[in-house]
Design goal:
By secondary structure, the protein is α/β, with parallel strands linked by helices. 52% of the residues lie in helices and 20% in strands. The protein has helices spanning 2-34, 73-83, 86-106, 119-124, 127-138, 159-170, 187-192, 202-205, 212-227, 240-249, 265-276; strands at 40-49, 55-66, 69-71, 112-116, 145-150, 174-180, 197-200, 231-234, 253-254, 263-264. The structure holds ligand C2E and magnesium ion (3 copies). This is EAL domain-containing protein.
């Protein structure tokens, strides 16, 4: 019987793998056309200062409009990383984000724009030349651009990537560590690469007002950030109770559904106009 059930679970496993492989293959084909067809859109999620409630920046989050629906980046970014499309797609995202933010700044809004950067872009694209060009073309000042990278990139084994990060910093841009706390950081590198901001992952923010363990972790990150002179931003803030707990813990900035979902650029136009008034 043991043999039989083993074979059963094996069959189940391959069926599931096949379904996933087929889905990926379908996405792969459609993704290749999507850029040419203009099916990608940038949404922007506002970031707020906890101390004075000011909108200080936006994070650009890509969306794929396909057949009447929106496909989540969590599904298609991994495929784009595998098939190399992340290089032209990432270039389009950077360009679009900088152009839009430069327009907002010309209208008098003092904000930064954060762009997620895939490890594949840092390994296979000349990000230094690309960022320099995009800044020059868009007119966005370097200090108004923040690149978000994940902790794993800073583990320290990939020398070309670490050199590129250092060269990017020399352009004057800001560097944020996304989903901080979920990976393994080489803490020494936070200082060495002049990281500007730690984005505390939403898994630690969730129910921070009711979960002592999460509260301890968040306080520790904020305390370390403060001593190292880094800005701290809490991601995924959904409730007033979470916001209040973060304020008391000394967090600098927040981002989350409570204060604004990711939205199309024109919706952010309206929000910015209200803030200026
Ligand atoms: P991320 O960079 O950590 O982005 C935060 C994610 O949390 C976003 O999901 C955002 O919509 C979501 N979020 C924001 N506030 C809340 C909240 O209060 N509650 C909850 N439950 N979620 C919240 P999204 O837009 O689906 O993006 C998922 C991930 O896909 C991103 O995680 C990022 O890793 C990746 N991604 C998104 N856009 C890009 C991009 O332009 N380039 C690259 N390379 N990756 C991207
Ligand atoms: Mg991010
Ligand atoms: Mg994140
Ligand atoms: Mg994430």
């Amino acid at each position: 019987h043991a043999k039989e059930s083993e074979r059963g679970s094996y069959r189940f496993f391959t069926a599931e793998l096949n379904a996933r492989a087929v889905e990926r293959l379908e996405l792969d084909g459609k993704l290749r056309d999507a850029l040419r067809l203009g099916e990608f859109e940038l949404f922007f999620q506002p970031q707020w200062s906890l101390a004075d409630g000011r909108l200080t920046g936006v994070e650009a989050l890509v969306r794929w409009r396909n057949g009447g629906g929106l496909i989540s980046p969590a599904r298609f970014i991994p495929v784009a990383e595998d098939n190399g499309l992340i290089i032209p797609l990432g270039a389009w995202i950077l360009e679009e984000a900088c152009r839009t933010a430069a327009r907002w700044r010309r209208q008098g809004h003092d904000l930064t724009v954060a762009v997620n950067v895939s490890p594949v872009q840092l390994r296979r694209d000349d990000m230094v030349a690309r960022v320099r060009d995009v800044l020059a073309r868009s007119g966005l000042p370097a200090h108004a651009l923040e690149l978000e990278i994940t902790e794993s990139l800073m583990m320290g084994d990939d020398l070309p990537v670490l050199d590129m990060l250092a060269a990017l910093k020399e352009l004057g841009i800001k560097l944020a560590i996304d989903d901080f706390g979920t990976g393994y950081s080489n803490l020494a590198y936070l200082k060495r690469f002049n990281v500007d901001r730690l984005k505390i992952d939403q898994s630690f923010v969730r129910d921070i007002d009711r979960k002592p363990d999460a509260a301890v972790i968040v306080s520790a990150v904020i305390g370390m950030g403060r001593r190292l002179g880094l800005n701290t931003l809490a991601e995924g803030v959904e409730t007033e109770a979470e916001r209040t707990a973060l304020l008391h813990a000394g967090c600098d900035d927040v981002q989350g559904y409570l204060l604004g979902r990711p939205m199309p650029g024109k919706d952010l136009d309206a929000l910015l106009t209200r803030q200026l008034a």
